[in-house]
C-alpha cells in the first residue's frame, strides 16, 4: 500500500467523509486516513481508533481538526481565536477580546483569507520547539505577544488585565498535548 495524500481530511459528519485522499490499495488492505479513522476499501466500513498517535515528522499533528478561514498570515503552532467575522486570528493574552485561544494552526504557513486546517484537540509536534516537560513547568499558556510563531508560553501572565488561559502541556521538548481550556482568569494586581 502506498498512501499518496492524506493531508486534506476535513471531518466526518453523519457518516460522510469530507476531504480528499488517494492511495494505491490492494483488495483487502485497510488504510489509516488520519485523526483516528480507518477505512476498509473492500467493505467501505469506517472505524474509529480512539488512541492518539504521536506524529513522527518535523511538523505534525494528530487529533480533532476543523477547516477555518484565516484573518491574518499564520504558521504552524499559532494559537488562534475566532473573530467577529468568523475568521481565525492570532490569540493574545494581553486583552480579553483576543484571549480565547480555541484552535491551533497546523498548516506550515497559511496566507490571510485562506482556508486551512486547525487542531481543536490533540498532539502537535514541531522539532524547533524546546519545551520544559513535567509538573507545573510543563503547562502551556497563551502568550501576550499575539505574534505569529509566539502564541504559546510556559509562564503565566502577571500584568494588570492580562488573561491566563491554559492551552495544554508539553509531553516532550518538541511535542505538546493541545487541550485549550475555556476557563480563563483575568489578572488584577
Task: Provide tags for this entry.
189 residues; mainly beta; Virus Head Decoration Protein, Chain: A; nine-stranded antiparallel β-sheet; disordered N terminus
User: CATH class of the largest domain, please?
Assistant: Mainly Beta
Number of domains: 2
What is the H/E string?
A: EEEEEEEEEEEEEEEEEE
Our count of helices gives: 0
Global morphology: globular
How far apart are the first and last residues' alpha carbons, in Å? Answer: 60 Å
Structural class: mainly beta
> Quaternary arrangement of the chains shown?
single chain
Topology:
Layout: E1 2-13, E2 16-24, E3 31-34, E4 37-39, E5 46-48, E6 59-69, E7 74-75, E8 79-82, E9 88-90, E10 103-105, E11 109-110, E12 115-126, E13 139-142, E14 152-153, E15 163-164, E16 166-172, E17 175-178, E18 185-186
Antiparallel strand pairs: 1-2, 3-4, 4-5, 6-12, 7-11, 8-9, 8-10, 10-12, 12-17, 13-14, 13-16, 15-18, 16-17
Task: Give an overview of the whole structure.
It is a single chain. By secondary structure, the protein is an all-beta fold. The protein has two domains: 2-48, no CATH class; 59-186, Virus Head Decoration Protein, Chain: A (Beta Barrel), CATH 2.40.300. 0% of the residues lie in helices and 47% in strands. The strands form five sheets. Strands 6, 8, 9, 10, 12, 13, 14, 16 and 17 form a nine-stranded antiparallel sheet that branches. A three-stranded antiparallel sheet has the order 3-4-5, with no helix packed on it. Strands 1-2 form a two-stranded antiparallel sheet. A hairpin with a 2-residue loop joins strand 1 and strand 2 (16-24). The protein is globular and about 60 Å long. The model is unreliable at 1-35 (pLDDT under 50).
Amino acid at each position: 500500500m502506498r498512501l499518496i495524500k492524506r493531508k486534506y481530511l476535513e471531518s466526518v459528519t453523519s457518516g460522510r467523509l469530507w476531504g480528499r485522499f488517494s492511495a494505491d490499495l490492494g483488495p483487502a488492505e485497510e488504510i489509516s486516513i488520519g485523526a483516528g479513522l480507518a477505512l476498509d476499501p473492500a467493505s467501505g466500513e469506517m472505524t474509529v481508533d480512539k488512541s492518539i498517535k504521536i506524529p513522527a515528522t518535523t511538523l505534525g499533528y494528530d487529533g480533532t481538526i476543523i477547516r477555518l478561514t484565516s484573518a491574518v498570515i499564520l504558521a504552524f503552532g499559532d494559537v488562534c481565536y475566532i473573530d467577529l467575522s468568523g475568521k481565525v486570528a492570532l490569540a493574545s493574552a494581553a486583552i480579553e477580546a483576543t484571549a480565547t485561544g480555541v484552535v491551533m494552526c497546523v498548516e506550515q504557513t497559511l496566507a490571510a483569507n485562506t482556508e486551512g486546517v486547525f487542531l481543536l484537540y490533540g498532539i502537535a509536534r514541531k522539532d524547533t520547539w524546546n519545551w520544559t516537560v513535567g509538573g507545573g513547568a510543563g503547562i502551556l499558556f497563551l502568550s501576550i505577544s499575539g505574534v505569529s510563531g509566539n502564541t504559546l508560553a510556559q509562564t503565566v501572565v502577571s500584568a494588570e488585565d492580562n488573561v491566563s488561559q491554559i492551552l495544554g502541556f508539553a509531553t516532550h521538548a518538541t511535542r505538546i498535548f493541545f487541550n485549550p481550556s475555556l476557563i480563563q482568569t483575568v489578572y488584577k494586581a
